[in-house]
């Protein structure tokens, strides 16, 4: 009799704790949406690096210098910074979908400008609009992925979110350069075909966002608008700044350096160089239990190797150094994101991530712009040595601050 009572009680508890069909369906919908938004994140970030392997073609077509390439790249990063500063936090109360949809619209307009206004002014405007779109997407999509992951697997840890968001972010940046380089090398109309392909992908991304469930409940009273508050940990912000400085190098001047100084004009190779860096960063982020110190050492070794490659004009050494630096930068950036997402309140998650990306994109534009200015007065190899010294100084400062904080 006692066994029957215990069995009945167990069956009753199973029924009571089993999710209702509606709850299971809602969880499954969030699970599908998680992968849809990850794909949207990847496509939108990939589009932002499409011009990287095409810059040598633009230079030959319009006759502008490496410094002009740096300006075009800086305009993109400025667009990202402005977008993050003015609207990076808006999705916390307006909703993730309401921010992602116009952001993708900006990227679609930029793709049309690349297609129909290929001159330097059109390139500048298109890159600026791309930056505005990416600034809206980065923090919003990262917060969206975390919320969809939590809704789908409320009892699970954040490992899946961290791996997928990192792969979508850095993997997307690398995929854009590789796809653009491949299409420019083997498809007709190298300055048009990559944008046509991504115009189609961005249109599909809009449909994916429209189908995804919203994860933010709009407040009863809309808060008054204010610009973004930068509220990030000092070590995390410096870490993100330094990591993106390395990424900026390989999406701006590196393809031209490979085509010019290293005498390898292949468009596919130009895209592959950037892809190697970002792919190494994405892969390194998936490794179990990386520490910030590991990233610091790998990045330091990588930039020293890249500097040596520029002096020796060695493509193999350049690629090896880029992969090592990219892996280190990936680990460092993941560490920064982990600090931010683990300490931010839910209603400030987008704002805090926007602050981190704001500092990161300042790292993307500042050092690379300085490098571009330096190439006007000294040889590229000398400027690269200066850039290496600057990065090593930043890495040393981060190491010191991290030790002080831990103590």
UniProtKB/TrEMBL annotation:
What Pfam family does this protein match (any one)?
A: MFS_1
Q: Does the keyword Transmembrane helix apply?
A: yes
For this protein, the record's InterPro entries field holds: MFS (IPR011701), MFS_dom (IPR020846), MFS_trans_sf (IPR036259), MFS_Transporters (IPR050171)
Q: Extract the SUPFAM superfamilies matched here.
A: MFS general substrate transporter
List keywords of the entry alphabetically: Cell membrane, Membrane, Transmembrane, Transmembrane helix, Transport
GO cellular component terms listed in the entry, alphabetical order: plasma membrane
Q: Return the Gene3D superfamilies for the record.
A: MFS general substrate transporter like domains
Which segments constitute the Major facilitator superfamily (MFS) profile domain? 32-407
Localization recorded for this chain is: Cell membrane
Membrane topology label: Multi-pass membrane protein
What sections of the protein cross the membrane? Answer: 32-52, 64-87, 99-118, 124-146, 167-187, 193-213, 234-254, 266-284, 291-309, 315-333, 353-377, 383-401
> Among its keywords, does the record have Nucleus?
no
User: What superkingdom heads the lineage?
Assistant: Bacteria
Task: Please give the Gene Ontology molecular function terms for this protein.
Answer: transmembrane transporter activity
Supply the name of the protein.
MFS transporter
What organism is recorded for this protein?
A: Paractinoplanes ferrugineus
